User: What shape does this take?
Amino acid sequence: MIRKGRLFTPGPTQLLPSAQLAMAGATMHHRTAEFRAIYTRVLADLKTFVGTKNDVVMFTASGTGAMEAAVANLTSPGDKVLVVSAGKFGERWEGLAKAYGCAFETVRAPYGETVTPQQVREKLKPEHRVLFIQATESSTGVRHDIEAIARLLKGTETLLVADAITGLGTTHFDVDGWGMDVIIGGSQKAVMIPPGLAFCSVSDRAWARMETSKNPRYYFDLRKERKNGAKGESSYTPSTALVVALAAALDYIREQGGGDLATGRKLLVDNAETAAAMTRAAAKALGLRLFSASSPGAALTAIASPDGVDSSDIVKAFRNQFGAIVANGQGEMKGQLIRIAHLGYYDYLDTIAAIGALEQVLAGMGRPIDLGAGLRAAQQVYAEVTLPAAVAR
Ligand SMILES: *Cc1c(COP(=O)(O)O)cnc(C)c1O
Assistant: This one.
């Protein structure tokens, strides 16, 4: 059969057609009234998308740029900071803390697991200036309990910085209520556009910290970027095409919410939750092991490859048979799991297709697969989630 190219990776994700079209038509100079209006609207819409009253700052960079900005702007050499690490992205916080001369301690969970608030409490000290964490650890599919960890930091001087690059659009956050000082997002995840933009919201406490922090910063200077953002500009030449695409994507999310962006964001999260629940049920019905069974997020589902099967072969078969790209494990997890994304532009049909393809791929590898068992379980989940609402209508 013919194969349509499809991305099922947790970044970059499947692109939104209206955003692609907007990009294609964007011949624009960034120091014009026309672009300033778009930039201003995008920064305002991002506040609603993140769900905060705090100012949002945006950089032309991959998501790691905003992670680096958080470390560079909020710390001084020698600062004690705490990192929660449960995978490759948690390890990135350790790398950044090291690069900026911070004395970091780590609360670590094995790959596929999260930490308990109790473990964090035991390591947390009053002198920790910042706690760095992921909302969802994309290398394993785990969701951390940000609300509980934020509660531990209430009344302390420790800032909470969350990499929510796959957490946004897949998790219901109360950013200001919980006291999330910095929450970071990236363009190639739930907002359905190509890689190249990173953004973060910053609390008053965090802005105040920057008045005394001493680490060097130039391109990733949050205060400079905020000042220019208030004028509808970016400090340097932004990716105008991506900014226009982001405007279109946020419009799409607003439309999904019947004209209300916050409602659209909630629906996007619920959409990812449903796709994730369908995929988990399918994997279990197929006798597969979920890699992050105890604390699965909705951004993606990580499925352990069956004993004796290299997940690289599953990834290859998805591509060769169906033109579909699923993600392998990262680093030491390569060969051991596949990751299927749900964040952003994935609907019921995409999810069913991915599950059907998984069944075919495993059967094709000679695994004892009951074709349709995964699909049946996924159908059941979908019906349970949506039928009461359909009947109510
Ligand atoms: C994708 C992702 C990032 C950013 O990676 P970049 O390649 O720099 O865009 C960071 N953290 C998490 C959890 C991610 O999923």
Notes: Residues 10-11, 62-64, 89, 134, 138, 163, 165-166, 186, 195 surround pyridoxal-5'-phosphate (CB under 6 Å). Residues 110 and 307 are 20 Å apart (CA to CA). The chain has 14 helices and 14 strands. The mean pLDDT is 97.
